[in-house]
Amino acid sequence: MVNNSKRLLLIENSICSDEVRVALSVNNKIVEFEQEFKEKRQLRGNIYVAYVKRIKPSLQAVFIEYGKNKQGFLSFSEISPDYFNISEKEKEAFFESCSNGDYTEENSSVSTNVSSDSAANKNINESSSSFVREVSLYKKYKLQDVIAVNQKILVQLTKEERGNKGASFTTYITLVGRYCIFMPNSMSKGGISRKIEDANIRKQLKDILDSISLPKKSCLIIRTIGSGKSKKEIEQDYNYLFSLWQNIQKNASSTNVPSLIYNEADLIMRSIRDFCSNDVEIIVSGKEAFEVVKQYTENALKGSKLRYRLYRGFVPIFTYYGIEDQVSELYSNRVKLPSGGSLIITLTEAFVSIDVNSGKMMEEDSIEETAYRTNMEAVPEISRQVNLRGLSGLIVVDFIGMLKYQYCRAVEFAVRQAFKDDKAKVQFSYINDFGLMVFSRQRIKPSIQEINTIECLHCRGVGKVKSNEVIVASVLRELQYVASRNRNGSFDLLAHSSIITHIFNNKRDTVSTIEKEFNIKLNVNADNNLSVDAFILKRGDNVNLNDCKPLQNSGYKTEGNDNEKVNYSGGLQNNFWLTRWLSRLLSSNS
Question: Does the structure show a pLDDT above 80 at 179?
Fold first, then answer.
């Protein structure tokens, strides 16, 4: 049904859910996956006209207003000298010192290895600001002396709001194209992506870069995907970015209120820009998404030979190409390996834990060989899962213990090679004596669990719930406490049906003892809308019982047929009671 030799970029635009999903499939195996809801579009990369609202010298930062009731954080190191309230002569002198500095191409290109525009924004800006700090610009001036309240500033969003953390911005604008990254107000000299290792290709691209006439105070960086491209293609991409920058400046000068003036490319356009080449076929499900692909290809990618077509099948496109099941597996914490091993992926607040298990993999002659082979088999799958799930921060991998030094070094080398083409910046450590390897991965997008899942109402994110025995013990402790303080009373217990069942099956004698000791009456009701570990125990009307009966089933009405249905007061229904069993129970108690 599907040609296995093809590289397919599948774009699904769901009309019913307003969701866009994009998957890159190689040999029917998903290697890239992203999704976006229309009401939750990515804001990173958007450019705003903002105004300085508060200056905080103690934080070396200012707070800006970039929309109605929207405020963000702007560090002093992220403010371009163009916005400093100093003379033009001082600005020119500073720029000249930057141009004559020893900032090399390698330093500026180290951050352009990524193919994602959001990651490029962050990394390139960090490179620029680090260079500015290198020449001690921010030691020469004080924040409150060079920046004024209500000053107009053009900013780009680098970190979206997350929890209690507000959005972060920079004034060093970065525009990402298909082959180039244009930085119109950068302090660096630009360069070529370090991931392009071939010396001849680097020399060719360097000649192309030198032949392009750039405006003053701007730089151009050639991305990894620009390797082997002609001068015409790179110039065409640069001209598109330069015209885009001119439109942004024009719109910024014509507005005097905090507002959005440039929207970063949506998921469909970013995917085509970052993942597509001439050997990738684009298959689009949805006429609206197809029109977006068509217009973007004709306007931004003029002269490209991209192949795209509209999917007209009745079967959902992800199901037809065998991708849906692979996407569903991303929500599981267990990933199976081909030879019988598995990965256990656990997300915590501080880091991500990945445990490598050998499972049924016992084909080697020794334990050492089995451990080595399982670890080597797990490495590419770890890289794939980290990328697909969007895992970031500290990632701890618990490999199966290996005693041989050469095996440990081989696994470490394999990990570095597996993440070589990762879009995010990754820093590695070594396998320690406990078999643990820690590496740090840059956050370029939220994880799939973060955007698509919510906290479990029962476990509250722990992943485990209390057993019935523990919950019932808590109920009985609470009952004994309130009964000792309110003797000769009536109490109502409302809990999940499984808890009520456990009390009837195992704790009737205990409840009877409590009722007789404190001369109380307990009425029980089941409510499956409650969490399993939640219960309500409240005091009813005072009663004087001469003959206390154990665990009265107040409110339940049983039917005299064989149906497994019980109706009880309050409108609650439960179908787990066996009528005959309950009838015998109540008759014996009476």
Answer: yes
As a whole number, the mean pLDDT across the chain is: 79
pTM of the predicted model, to two decimals?
0.73
What string of H, E and C letters represents the secondary structure of 74-120? EEHHHCCHHHCCCCHHHHHHHHHHHHCCCCCHHHHHHHHCCCCHHHH
Q: What is the pLDDT of residue 16?
A: 65
The DSSP secondary-structure symbol of 44 reads T
Cα(55)–Cα(61) distance, rounded to whole angstroms? 7
Which of 127-136, 246-255, 371-380 shows the lowest mean pLDDT across its residues?
127-136
pLDDT at residue 17 in the model: 65
> What share of residues in the chain are helix, strand, coil (percent, to 5)?
40, 25, 40
pLDDT in tens, 565-585: 333 333 333 444 444 455 555
Average of per-residue pLDDT across 71-84: 88
Q: Tell me how many degrees the CA angle 345-351-352 measures, rounded to the nearest 5.
A: 15
Rounded Cα distance, 382 and 418, in Å: 9
Closest to 415 measured CA to CA, from 382, 464, 371: 382
Spatial distance between the Cα atoms of 298 and 301, rounded to a whole number of angstroms: 6
Q: Concatenate the DSSP letters of all residues of 154-184 into one string.
A: EEEEEE--BTTB-EEEESS--EE-SSEEEET
Cα dihedral sign, 297-302-306-310: positive
Strand locations in 161-242 (E) = 167-170, 175-176, 180-183, 191-192, 219-222
Q: In Å, what is the CA distance from 526 to each residue of 62, 145, 577?
A: 56, 68, 11
Q: What is the pLDDT of residue 368?
A: 86
Q: What pLDDT, on the 0 to 100 scale, is given for residue 430?
A: 93
Say how far apart CA 34 and CA 267 lie, in whole Å.
8
Contacts of 116 (CB under 8 A, 6+ apart): 270, 274, 423, 424, 444, 445
Residue 34, classed as helix, strand or coil, is strand
Q: pLDDT tens-digit profile of 444-491?
A: 888 888 888 887 777 777 778 888 888 888 888 888 888 888 888 888
In whole angstroms, give the CA distance from residue 489 to residue 466. Answer: 30
β-sheet bridge partners, residue 344 = 334, 355
Q: Give the integer Cα–Cα distance in Å for 61 and 99.
A: 26
**Run of H or E including 53:** strand 47-56
Concatenate the DSSP letters of all residues of 403-440 into one string.
--HHHHHHHHHHHHHHTTT-SS-EEE----TTSEEEEE
Report the sign of the C-alpha dihedral through residues 162, 166, 170, 176, in that order: positive
